[in-house]
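Justification of computing resources. Each target in the renewal requires a structure prediction run like the one illustrated here; the chain below, 131 residues long, is used simply to show the kind of job we budget for.
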Amino acid sequence: MLACGTPLALKELMKKILPVLLLTITTLTHAQSTVSTLCEDLPINGSVRVLAFPSRNNPLAQQYGLRRSGEREYEVYVNIDFKAAASYDGNLQTKEAINNHYKRFMRQCFRRNENNLVDEYQRKIKLKLYE
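Resulting C-alpha cells:
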C-alpha cells in the first residue's frame, strides 16, 4: 500500500487518472468547438445535450451537456464513472466509495482550473460533473 503524498503514490495515482483526464481534455476540445457553433443560437440559461459519435479524427464517443450560464460563460457537464482496476488493493472497498472519492478530486481539479478555460473569443468554459 502506498502512503498518500509520496512521489510514488502520486505517480501511481496519475497512472490511474491519466486516461480519464485525456478523455476529459478530448471532451473539452470538442466542447469548445461545439460552443463556437452553438453560441449564437443558445439563449442564456439554455442547454443542449451533445452526442458526438466516434470518427477517424476522434475515436472516442462523447456525450455531455452544454449550458449557457451567461453572456460569455458556458458550463460543460460530463458524467464520469470511476471503477477500480482488477489490481486495486486500496482502502476503498465499494464501487460507490471509489467513484465518490475520485469524483471529489475531479471536481477540485475543475474548480482550480476553471479560470484557465477560455476560447479565442474570451468565452469561459466551466467543467462540471453530473451529480
